From TrEMBL:
SUPFAM superfamilies for the chain: Bacterial luciferase-like
Keyword set, alphabetical order: Flavoprotein, Monooxygenase, Oxidoreductase
UniProt EC number: 1.-.-.-
Name of the protein: LLM class flavin-dependent oxidoreductase
Stated family: Belongs to the bacterial luciferase oxidoreductase family.
Ranges of residues in domain Luciferase-like: 8-309
PANTHER family, per database record: BLL0895 PROTEIN, LUCIFERASE-LIKE MONOOXYGENASE
UniProt enzyme class: oxidoreductase
Lineage: Bacteria, Bacillati, Actinomycetota, Actinomycetes, Streptosporangiales
GO molecular function annotation: oxidoreductase activity
């Protein structure tokens, strides 16, 4: 068997701007509770400040709330946009959550993905990646060292800085950086020894990125820095929806998919979403064919994950994008079907039951003979009395 995969969900989140934000927020927390009950490994919560759809502003607060409602699922920021925050405060909040969750916290970080966010903060987009690298160096030191650090940049100053509380876990807090299309984040991960969360579901109409090449960027940077990177620490996000049949799955998400494509990507961000030669109404099937999303039956979902494994040469975890493409009861059913019938094919949970079933089947004649002998013996003893 190949290395078992971890599974989780990635809550950007994206909610229709016609829905009351309070209710969508509480539903997000209910979803994380459900994921915990269904034995998912992780839940990642995003940070965004404009655009209306991605309406979680402070993922740390959501994580603190759901930490009290869950038992074992790991909780991650997905991601904290480092250029918007003083790195000392990011590290402080990370340690606080690490203790509140008893070691279940993952610090997911990135440069930020919505251009209107840094605009409001007066940050040039060309500054976001350099700021991310500067902040990461400080955060790694603060989380991992007892020594003070002094650092002055054009956007933050630290003087004799040291966290007064160490992380809860002896091994420290896991840090993972998000990666989209450029090699920058993968190289940062390799150079600094970080985990990676890659976006495997690009915006509609865009071909799936060469994720295998992306991973090689991390390996090359790690080698140059005298480090190694582990595919077990590589997570890939993917939009997945599962129903009993492929036809049912397509019918369930078609309207929500269309609303996401045209209401979010096209209307809000004015980005091209069409595929040449594909009329509106058939874009769902086209994006499935491109490998951008996985929609269908249990077998379709299994096949989609296997293709992704083959195309990447392997990764450590998959995060299901938590889209509102169907009503809550159907989305709940999709997560349940995935947890019960898809994930176990990749975690090793089915190995022992199948071995046992095969063994009993192969040796059934032996057990049947003994069973019949026992019955005959019992009947004989009953007749003798």
């Amino acid at each position: 068997m190949t290395t078992p995969l971890k599974f989780g969900a990635f809550l950007v989140p994206l909610h229709d701007i016609n829905e009351k934000p309070t209710l969508s927020l509480w539903r997000d927390m209910r979803l994380i509770e459900l994921l915990d009950e269904l034995d998912y490994d992780e839940a990642w919560v995003g940070e965004h400040h404009s655009g209306g759809w991605a309406n979680i502003l402070a993922p740390e607060l959501v994580i603190a709330a759901v930490a009290e409602r869950t038992r074992r699922i790991r909780l991650a920021t997905g991601v904290i946009s480092l250029p918007y925050h003083n790195p000392f405060m990011v590290a402080s909040r990370a340690v606080q959550l690490d203790h509140l969750t008893r070691g279940r916290f993952i610090l997911g970080v990135g440069a930020g993905s919505i251009p209107s966010d840094p605009h409001m903060l007066g940050i040039e987009q060309t500054e976001t990646r350099p700021r991310t690298a500067e902040a990461l160096e400080v955060i790694q030191h603060l989380l991992g060292s007892d020594e003070t650090i002094t650092r002055k940049t054009d956007w933050f100053t630290l003087q004799d800085a040291r966290l007064q509380v160490a992380p809860y876990s002896p091994g420290g807090i896991e840090i993972a950086i998000s990666s989209a299309l450029s090699p920058n984040s993968m190289r940062t991960a390799g150079r600094m020894g970080l985990g990676v969360m890659s976006f495997g579901s690009p915006r509609p109409g865009i071909p799936l990125p060469d994720l295998g090449r992306q991973w090689r960027y991390a390996e090359e940077a790690a080698a140059e820095a005298g480090r190694t990177v582990d595919r077990a620490d590589w997570r890939i996000t993917q939009t997945v929806y599962v129903a009993e049949t492929r036809e049912e799955a397509y019918a369930d998400v078609r309207a929500g998919f269309d609303r996401w494509v045209h209401g979010y990507w096209e209307d809000i961000f004015h980005l091209p979403v069409g595929i040449e030669g594909v009329p509106r109404g058939q874009e769902l099937e086209a994006n499935i064919e491109m490998g951008n999303i996985i929609v269908g039956s249990v077998d379709d979902a299994v096949a989609g994950i296997e293709r992704l494994q083959e195309n990447t040469d392997g990764f450590g975890g998959m995060l299901l994008m938590a889209h509102d493409w169907a009503p809550w009861d159907k989305m709940r059913r999709s997560y349940e079907l995935f947890a019960r019938y898809v994930a176990p094919r990749f975690t090793g949970a089915l190995v022992r039951p199948r071995l046992s079933a095969d063994w009993v089947t192969a040796n059934g004649h032996l057990f049947e003979a003994g069973y019949q002998a026992a019955i005959q013996q019992a009947m004989g003893q009953a007749a003798a009395t």
